[in-house]
């Protein structure tokens, strides 16, 4: 890694690891006061307000709309459902961060040449995912895995179609078009405790995960590329595990750790191929 790449990594990926790692235990806390769909609505609403004010406008278009469906509606829905239905947010983070594996698969389908090291990484990653799911399968892990696939699609789509867009205005538009769609599905397991603690946690989560997280993430993809940014994102499950322990004292079982480690090794191989 060159010095310039290293500085860009520190500038964009370390904040991603911190804020998104924190978002998993925070989401679990918030889920005690609000259902997953409510959490998604509040996150994108806060994101829209912040980015619209900052960018003083919107980046509007069909491609921007599709990007919002993938990166906001799809990812957030399955991420929040995953955390809601799982006892360990850190393990859901592992499933979400299989995203680099699926990025490589998608690029392969689209005709991008993949080295043998990358193919081996995919195989190892699939083994790790299967092991983790088999050991302690639940809806949370399934939803997390679906979220990882959708996020991979969104990352490749952004990289190929919207790289030159104003990131702030793009985020504002994606959030805006996501709000009515997410509102339409809030009746699914609707629950909301109207109190200061719940509202405070929701706002905090929105500022940290939606505003901070996506701002740093899209800049990382822009300046480092989807492959290197995805490699750096492997730090997020690590911080999610650590912070989940700090918040809930939840420790994954030995077999869950082995399955997750195999998955991350596979992801690392694909991203360094």
UniProtKB/TrEMBL annotation:
Keywords: Cell membrane, Membrane, Transmembrane, Transmembrane helix. It comes from the Archaea. PANTHER family: INNER MEMBRANE TRANSPORTER, S-ADENOSYLMETHIONINE_S-ADENOSYLHOMOCYSTEINE TRANSPORTER. This is DMT family transporter. It is found in: Cell membrane. The keyword Transmembrane applies. It comes from Sulfurisphaera javensis. Its main location: membrane. Residues 12-130, 139-271 form the EamA domain. One of its GO terms (cellular component) is plasma membrane. Coiled coil: none annotated. It is a multi-pass membrane protein. The keyword Transmembrane applies. The chain crosses the membrane at residues 9-27, 33-53, 65-85, 91-111, 118-135, 141-158, 170-188, 194-217, 229-248, 254-271.
